[in-house]
Amino acid sequence: SLLYMIPHAPTTSMLIMGIISALLGGWMGLNQTQTRKLMAFSSIAHMGWLMIALTLSPNLATITLLVYIILNVSMFMTMILTTTKTTMDLSTTHSCYPTLTALLMTSTMSLGGLPPLSGFLPKWLILKLLTAAKMPLMATILALATLPSLYFYIRMTYITMLTSPPNTTTTEYKWRLYMQPPTNIMTFVSLSLLLLPMTPTLANTI
């Protein structure tokens, strides 16, 4: 009900605040190494997209919010299970959690909005409606505002998959005892990766 009351607010101010939020969240997260702060600034950036979606369509705002909740839940559940607190911790998780590490990488890319993952779905629909509303400049600025966020998501992925901690030949390697992730994590991760084929169905509800 609250979502349907928002469009009565001035549209221009909501759009400007959304752009500022998307830019601020991306730039503030560039130099962060703690995953909690990265996710916090990621939330600020996504809040900008949500504010713009509210001015375009309440149904689109609901879809954007639900997709972001799914992405966040999958990320946080994976980080809690792997006890990841900083970006450097990501380089040590592969030996113990090889499957979860791969899932964390793809979930991070989905959170960044890369196609063909689920995170691309709401951003695609928002940019489509902005263009249809004769606001191509706003759509271009909003798309460019995602580049800083995408940079630190790609940096997290690089640290996760392509780096390894320094070790010597006397290192005691752990057995891979955590090959099968829990079912609840697999459910949310699957949703965070495979929702894009539902785009035509969801677009008809806007």
UniProtKB/TrEMBL annotation:
Residue ranges occupied by any NADH:quinone oxidoreductase/Mrp antiporter transmembrane domain in the UniProt entry: 12-144
GO (cellular component) term, any one: mitochondrial inner membrane
Domain NADH dehydrogenase subunit 2 C-terminal: 150-202
First-listed, main subcellular location of the protein, grouped into a coarse class: mitochondrion
InterPro entries: Complex_I_Subunit_2, NADH_DH_su2_C, NADH_UbQ_OxRdtase_chain2, ND/Mrp_TM
GO molecular function: NADH dehydrogenase (ubiquinone) activity
Cell location: Mitochondrion inner membrane
Bilayer-crossing regions: 12-31, 38-57, 63-84, 96-115, 135-154
Reaction equation(s) it catalyzes: a ubiquinone + NADH + 5 H(+)(in) = a ubiquinol + NAD(+) + 4 H(+)(out)
Gene Ontology biological process terms in this record: mitochondrial electron transport, NADH to ubiquinone
UniProtKB keywords: Electron transport, Membrane, Mitochondrion, Mitochondrion inner membrane, NAD, Respiratory chain, Translocase, Transmembrane, Transmembrane helix, Transport, Ubiquinone
Record-listed E.C. numbers: 7.1.1.2
Membrane topology, as annotated: Multi-pass membrane protein
Homology family: Belongs to the complex I subunit 2 family.
PANTHER family per UniProt: NADH-UBIQUINONE OXIDOREDUCTASE CHAIN 2 (PTHR46552:SF1)
Main function: Core subunit of the mitochondrial membrane respiratory chain NADH dehydrogenase (Complex I) which catalyzes electron transfer from NADH through the respiratory chain, using ubiquinone as an electron acceptor. Essential for the catalytic activity and assembly of complex I.
Protein name: NADH-ubiquinone oxidoreductase chain 2
Organism classification: Eukaryota, Metazoa, Chordata, Craniata, Vertebrata
